[in-house]
Amino acid sequence: MKIGLVDADLLDGGTRHPNLALLKLAGFLFDNNINFSLIESDDADITEYDHIYVSKVFSFTKNPQFLENAKGSLDWQKFHLGGTGLYATQNDDREFAVLRQLDMEQFENDGFLNSLPNHRGGRDFGIDMARQMPYYKLYDNYISLKISQGKKESYFKDYLHYSIGFLTRGCFRKCPFCVNRLESRVTKHSELEWFLDNEEDENGRLKRPYIYLWDDNFLAAPPNVWRPLLKSLIESKRPFQFRQGLDERMIAESPYGEEMAKLLSQCKYHGDYIFAFDNWADRPKIEKALKIWKRYNKKETKFYLFCGFKLKPNDDVHLLNDIKEIFFRIEVLMQYGCLGYIMRHEDYHNHELSNIYVQIARWCNQPAFYKKMSFWEFCYRNQTFWEEHTLGLKVTPLKSYEEFLIDFNNGYYTDKKISLPLKTVIAFLERFSTHKKELLRLFNLRLRDLVNPNLWLKSE
For residue 317, how many other CB atoms are within 10 A of its CB? Predict the structure, then answer.
């Protein structure tokens, strides 16, 4: 018997993250000495496989060609399809709830898997997804091939250097864009030891010295859940990170908010602390939480800034308000010395001026730019780089919008190409000319001008 495992997202352009469901399924098959392999080609020969498990995380991912070819044939019976990419865009809540429940329980209700003994506890036969140790070597052959073809090993760091799992599952926020939108609470899912890899290399060093966690809203779990789990992370002495961010609002809302901030400050956290500031209406809670957070934490703090959701073609009102609210949130973050990170919903593509989101992300998501210059300065410096390095001109390092407009009207740019970032921001300002004054104020926000430690430092 041979089992094929398919990471559909990997086959359609790749992803920096391994598929956790497949890692766990591979671990279960490995425990039972079942022959399995990761299918690495879009046109693979599937005749050798008895069962093929396909996981698809993103709704925009194309199906592998061998799957499309199998539809309507006897080979179709081999396929088991799962993953959020199959239903994430389903708008009907009842249908979404049915599809999500089926997906979440699919492996544990699988007839073939339930014929195999469980070696990790929780049940006698079949896989227990919470307890199953991932098989972290699943992607090794694929990675070796890509590195031999010139891909940098650092691209695959999430595959090679991290133990991965969920400590908790669920959320109560009901964000309409989230796969947890019908959930109402957070529950414990796993113990850290159930997915913590302790394998060492020939020098006695951990092969996977880091941990990353996919928890949806860890801090919203009951205190008798998040407190011991967080302490177990601290006691592991391994750097860790919550990849989907933590809910900063819980620090403001919870009676344990101060304890949360204090405990997190004691962690060996990997990279930036990441939270989310998705809605401008949350500003009071975000600021209240930041006043607590910044007193305990000196490390860099970053906030995801969700945008572009439900944007439709020609909906200028939505576009204008969305862009303004991005900068309103950035202004608050700058005051507290925090970084922003633009997270675009795929709906942003719908408007003809969608490139404004791309340029804001190019500026905001790169701390070297965000910390040193405003959005306007970033866009204009793209222009000066073009003029200086391509056209060989001596340029004015920075012009205000008004100075640019004077030169534009005087014909300075007639024989010169205008860079895409500058062209994008000019088109946006012209489309919303009645709001130009406010937009220019926002586009000229600079962190060094706004950061104010008095906002969080306690007076003696």
Answer: 8
Whole-model pTM: value is 0.87
**DSSP code per residue over 394-453:** ---S---HHHHHHHHHTTTTTTSPPPHHHHHHHHHHHHTGGGHHHHHHHHT--HHHH--G
The yes-or-no verdict on residue 446 having pLDDT over 50 is yes
Smallest Cα–Cα separation from 178: which of 23, 306, 315? 306
Instruction: Name which residue leads in pLDDT, 189 or 388.
Output: 189
- Please give the DSSP secondary-structure letter assigned to residue 270: -
Q: Enter the tokens of residue 361.
A: 């992300």
Radius of gyration of the chain from its Cα atoms, rounded to whole angstroms = 25
Residue ranges with strand state E in 156-223: 162-165, 168-169, 187-188, 210-213
Q: Whole-angstrom Cα distance, residue 397 to residue 388?
A: 10
In tens, the pLDDT along 331-366 reads: 999 999 999 999 999 999 999 999 999 999 999 999
Joined together, the tokens standing for residue 157 give 């760091």
Nearest CA-CA partner of 359 in 326, 314, 406, 393: 326
Residue 3 and residue 32 in contact, taking contact as beta carbons nearer than 8 Å: no
Tell me the β-bridge partners of 6.
54
> Which run of H or E residues covers position 2?
strand 2-7
pLDDT, averaged across the chain: 94
